[in-house]
C-alpha cells in the first residue's frame, strides 16, 4: 500500500480539516471484490495536477454506507480540496480541467475521420503503392462504415436524435432504423468496389435525404440540435459535420454511378 494510502478505519481526521493547500483528501472503495475505477482515475488526476493525496480506502461495504449517510452523498469516490467537498470524479474533472459534460464538441468526429484517413492511406500504400483518387474514395467509404457502426452501437438513442430532424424518418419511423444499416452496408460494398449497382444508389438516396434534412433544420429553420452522425448521446452539434458526411456520400455515389454507366 502506498505511504499516502490508509484504510478508513484507521483515519480520525475530518476531510475538510485535512484538505489544505496542495493536499487533497480522497475517499474511494477498495473492497475485496471491487477496486473502484473512478477512484483510481481521481487519484491519478489529483497527482497529475500536483496534489498530495490523502488516500482513504473503504475495505468493507458497511463503511461505504456509513460514509454516504454521514456526508449525504449518493456515490463514491468523494474528494475534498481546500477544505471543501468537490464531489465525485466528474465533478473533480470539471474543477481541475476544461471538462464540461454539456458542451458541444467535434472531438468524436475528428477522431473518427482521422482513423478513416489513416485506414485509407494504409490501403492505398499497401495495395496500390501510391496515393491516388482511390485514397479519397476509401476515406469516404471507411468513414461510412465507422459512422454506421457508431449509430448501430445504440440504435434506440440514435433514432431518437435522428427523428428530431430527418425529413423521411419523421414521416416513416422505420427509416430511422434502416438508415445505419444502409450506410454501413453501402460503405462495406464501396470499400471492396462490389455491387456498385446496389451500393451507389442506396448511398445516394440516404445521403440526398440526409443533406436536405440537415440543410432545412440548420440553415432554414435555424434550429440548434445535436447531430446523430456519430450515434445517439454524442454532443456533436448538427450542421457542417453532418452536412459534410452526406455530401461526401453523395459525391462518392455519383462518381461510382458515372463509372458504372460509362462501363
Automatic annotation (TrEMBL):
Keyword list, A-Z: Membrane, Transmembrane, Transmembrane helix
Localization (cell): Membrane
Organism domain of life: Bacteria
Listed transmembrane segments: 109-128, 202-220, 240-262
Keyword Repressor: no
Pathway listed: One-carbon metabolism; methylamine degradation
Name of the featured protein: Methylamine utilization protein MauE
Amino acid at each position: 500500500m502506498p505511504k499516502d494510502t490508509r484504510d478508513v478505519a484507521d483515519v480520525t481526521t475530518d476531510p475538510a480539516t485535512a484538505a489544505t493547500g496542495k493536499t487533497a483528501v480522497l475517499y474511494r472503495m477498495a473492497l475485496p471484490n471491487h477496486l473502484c475505477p473512478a477512484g483510481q482515475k481521481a487519484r491519478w488526476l489529483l497527482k497529475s495536477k500536483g496534489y498530495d493525496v490523502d488516500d482513504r480506502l473503504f475495505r468493507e461495504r458497511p463503511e461505504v454506507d456509513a460514509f454516504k449517510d454521514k456526508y449525504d452523498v449518493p456515490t463514491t469516490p468523494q474528494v475534498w480540496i481546500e477544505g471543501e467537498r468537490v464531489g465525485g470524479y466528474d465533478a473533480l474533472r470539471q474543477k481541475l480541467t476544461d471538462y464540461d459534460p454539456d458542451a458541444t464538441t467535434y472531438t468524436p468526429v475528428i477522431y473518427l475521420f482521422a482513423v478513416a484517413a489513416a485506414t485509407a492511406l494504409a490501403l492505398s500504400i499497401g495495395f496500390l503503392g501510391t496515393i491516388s483518387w482511390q485514397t479519397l474514395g476509401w476515406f469516404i467509404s471507411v468513414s461510412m462504415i465507422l459512422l454506421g457502426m457508431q449509430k448501430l452501437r445504440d440504435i434506440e438513442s440514435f433514432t431518437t436524435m435522428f427523428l428530431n430532424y430527418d425529413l423521411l424518418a419523421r414521416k416513416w419511423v422505420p427509416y430511422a432504423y434502416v438508415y445505419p444499416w444502409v450506410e454501413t452496408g453501402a460503405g462495406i460494398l464501396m470499400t471492396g468496389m462490389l455491387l456498385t449497382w446496389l451500393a451507389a444508389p442506396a448511398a445516394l438516396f440516404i445521403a440526398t435525404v440526409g443533406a436536405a434534412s440537415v440543410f432545412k433544420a440548420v440553415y432554414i429553420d435555424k434550429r440548434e440540435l445535436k447531430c446523430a452522425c456519430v450515434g445517439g448521446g454524442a454532443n456533436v452539434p448538427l450542421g457542417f459535420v453532418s452536412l459534410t458526411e452526406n455530401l461526401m456520400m453523395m459525391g462518392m455515389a455519383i462518381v461510382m454511378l458515372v463509372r458504372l454507366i460509362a462501363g
